[in-house]
Amino acid sequence: MGRSTLRKKICMSVIGLSSFTVLASNFVQFPEPESEPAQYQIADLGVGMYPSRVNNSGTVVGILTGRLQGTEAFVWREETGRNDLKLDSESLSFANDISDSGLVVGHVGDQKGASRAYSWMSQNLDFDFSPFKEGQSIAYGVNTDGYMVGQVGENALSNFEAFRYEPGQGVRHLGTLGGNLSQASALNDRGEVVGWSVTADRRTHAFKWVEEQGMIDLGTLGGERSLAAAINEEGLIVGQAQTREGSTHAALFRDTKITDLGSMGGRWSLASDINNHGLIVGQADGEPDRMPEFAKRALNLGARLFSSQLVKTSSRAVLWKEGSPQDLNRLIPQGSEWTALSAATGVNDRGQIVGFGNKNGHLHGFLLTPVELEEESNVAVTVALESSFLSVN
């Protein structure tokens, strides 16, 4: 199959599942970043890999592209490398999140847009937690206690609603903000859920759902649209919101207050994840006044832009630390084979970051590890080896 045919097939498949992926072999070439002391070591996860999330053990999940059938879910561990889940050889598969215990959630689907949520752990595949066998379901998030969130409905494209699954209790429909669609993107260990919903006036707004109050509209930055991508244990929420001027910026939602996280000089940015220390990761467009049509269509549809990733090949992977954006390309060792880190999609509490970028003209997944964490690991290994040597002698 030709590259262009495969690219079109994969993009159509992902769009059919309300997740947007743009595969690009021609990346925008950026100027070399100014040299700074490296703050992260970078590990290459492999070609064609789109990481979604990383847990506190450093285990990464995401999707692998390049198969004739489309995409395939994977789990990557430092000790063993990539493990393709092989959920269904005839279907597309997506791994959207992973808990600290190693429980993976996602969905399998076909070229027509049908989808079914799953959970997977240590080779054990489970479709039975979802009672929606006649409908469409997608699991996007999971917490430590095995609670899952996502969307379910008669149609994965145009008729679905956010849900939360509780082990032993089943599935709860979370409703909407007055419109006909909603999607739950993530949850924390307190069971608080975030996502987006269509409102009564057909706008798309980020929401937070809590047991006592139900679904709460988080508003926008003055525009018509917003979405919530992740929530930490303090209840801090990150995502994206449209400004009054029409730009779409990464946003931090705290209670009823929205903070514009800005961009890297352009009009578009997205915050994909936040850890329990307040580190935020995402991507930003460095080109002023540029927002591709596919991004506009994705936002108009309220698509989940941060799991199977809306890829802007002109974007830069960004870290927000104490509210200040930093280009991750400037924080890795210079002179590497990486042309550009395009997007950061997940961050764990150890500060490890996953995402994807351009390496030698091809899309690769990456794992960034803070230099001090790498050094601590090396010291621990050295001490263990010395202790072993002394005990033998």
Please describe what this structure looks like.
The protein has 393 residues and is mainly beta. The chain has a single domain, classed as TolB, C-terminal domain (Neuraminidase). It contains three helices and 28 strands. It has helices spanning 3-16, 293-301, 371-392, and strands at residues 40-47, 49-54, 60-67, 70-77, 81-84, 92-98, 104-109, 115-121, 124-126, 136-142, 148-155, 159-166, 170-173, 178-187, 193-199, 204-210, 214-219, 222-231, 237-243, 248-254, 257-262, 269-274, 280-285, 315-321, 324-327, 338-347, 353-359, 362-370. The strands form seven sheets. The protein has a four-stranded antiparallel sheet. A four-stranded antiparallel sheet has the order 2-3-4-5. It has a four-stranded antiparallel sheet with strand order 6-7-8-9, with no helix packed on it. A hairpin with a 3-residue loop joins strand 16 (204-210) and strand 17 (214-219). The chain starts with a helix and ends with a helix.
